[in-house]
User: Fold these one by one.
Assistant:
Number 1:
Amino acid sequence: MKILMALLAVVVVPLAYAAADEAINKKCPITGKDVVAGRTVEYKKQTIGFCCMDCVNKFEEKPEKYIGKVKEFKKSSVSEISLGDDAINKKCPLTGKDVVAGRTVEYKKQVIGFCCMDCVNKFEGDPEKYIKKVKEFKKAGVE
């Protein structure tokens, strides 16, 4: 049994450290604690690490609130998600609330902005139902 445990330690421990190395950051953006293997989220094609699942969940709810705390996050990616600048609309077509950074969908070669992931998911489920509410949407020449 001791041999099995020693063998597992030799194999499993390096794998845990390798998984943590995949994150671009070494410190959790929410608590400042060290990143733990397996506690990551892919955000704008970059892997962000966290200390625990509670922090993963907090980040997933409001990534724009915490992403600025990840110094290693590539600035070009931050500009890609800047407060709905890429979206053709400034108001969510489902709720009428302001568009939030990172809450976008490309639809017929146009970027549509939303206030939350719930609205993104509803739109993706039936885009034809909601696209009529986006006044800025250009129908001609995009299909």
Note: The beta strands are 40-43, 46-49, 104-107, 110-113.
Number 2:
Amino acid sequence: MNDKNKMKPKPLIAVVDDDSSLRESTQLLLRSAGYRAEVFASAREFLDSPRIDETACLLLDVRMPGMDGLELQRFLNEAQRQIPIIFITAHATDNAEQRARKAGAVDFLRKPVNDEKLLSAIQTALKGWKDDERRRQ
């Protein structure tokens, strides 16, 4: 088999949320849409994961025990890890949304999230990832 016939890797979407039912349902949605999906119950679990380096998009809750979503976003920015982030939260404030967007969030969605709106936001977030993949080839 030559290189042109190799399958391109599917983007990995990481879901970081302390709500187990949201993690599971989002993982099912993402896989049914053709993405690879990994779920994490906390920011620390994500940071300790070997998947961090291959994450193409991060779906992130704002309020979680321990390091919250905004703190994780700040940590990733300071570490110069350019992972597109989409916040999904039930505890939205205008201040949190402004901080998230100012720090580079692709989108800020409120729970319950419409599946089509979420998938559209992911497509927007992945535009840069796909461009990076093309440059590597």
Note: Helices lie at 20-32, 43-47, 69-78, 94-102, 115-136.
Number 3:
Amino acid sequence: MLDPSLRLTIATPALVVVDRLAILSLRAEDESGGFGIHVGHADMVTLLSASVVRWTTPDGIAHFCAVEGGVLIVSNGVTVSIACREAVRGESLQRLEARVHEARAAQLDAMRRARVEQTRLHARAVRQMLRYLRPQPTRGVSE
């Protein structure tokens, strides 16, 4: 008997969020709108919008993953692979929304701290260059 499930992989540059998980169906969204994938789907490649990917496992439970864009590839009608910059997985839409907000807040905070550090280093470099370009006269040296 043929396996009636797809195999889903979702990966970011830093980690594999979902690794060859057996699923029955998947819903995603690209610029043309939402679409669904089932076993036997034609091979395809598409660019995903920043959206929530939804899938159903063989036990009937729906799962969710927020992706920040990415590429979705369907191969051989049974393998679905998603490569994206960031992915946040959640077991319900409410939890996913909270996790996305937390991840975004942490990302904004890290960016703010990096900007402050960059400004501090820039100011320090400018002060150092000014010291070399305008040397202070040394005391006790007659001119």
Note: The domain at 6-91 is CATH 2.60.15.10 (ATP Synthase; domain 1).
